Amino acid sequence: MPAILEGKVALVTGVSRDGQVGQTVAKVLAENGAALAICARTQSNVEERAEELRQAGARVLAVAASLTDEAQVRQLIERVLSEYTKIDILVNLAGGLIPTFEKFDSEGIPARAAV
Q1: pLDDT digits over 4-61, tens only?
Q2: Of 20, 43, 83, 105, which has the fewest beta carbons less than 10 angstroms from its beta carbon?
């Protein structure tokens, strides 16, 4: 039986640390047959995550980009389309998760809205 996401391409942003949501989502997508494009702000972080995924058998394109910079976002999309010709799934986890209401402060709103 083929994997449910075989032939699909998933772009996952915010894949910067092992064991966090972005890496876990990318791993599950790959386990279900998706080819991956992953993004984090720093090249070393995204390459480390990509290597972990490749060792598990995933096809991965790793791109360093900040989603707060429009030019970098355009380059990210161009690289993914150049490698895979399409994007079927987008999981945007850049900027992390919003804290619980008790920990939330209004000063964080502009930075999170920019992502």
Answers
A1: 999 999 999 999 876 688 999 999 999 999 999 999 999 999 999 999 999 999 999 9
A2: 105
List the domain range (segments joined by +) for residue 48. 9-114
Domain of residue 40, CATH code:
3.40.50.720
Nearest to 87 by CA among 9, 6, 5: 9
Look at the chain and report how many structural domains it folds into. Answer: 1
What is the model's pTM? 0.81
Phi and psi angles of residue 19, each rounded to the nearest 5 degrees, phi first: 85, -5
- 99 domain residue, yes or no: yes
Pairing of strands 35-40, 60-64: parallel
* Contact partners, residue 102, CB within 8 Å, separation at least 6: none
Give the Cα separation of 100 and 72 in Å (integer). Answer: 30
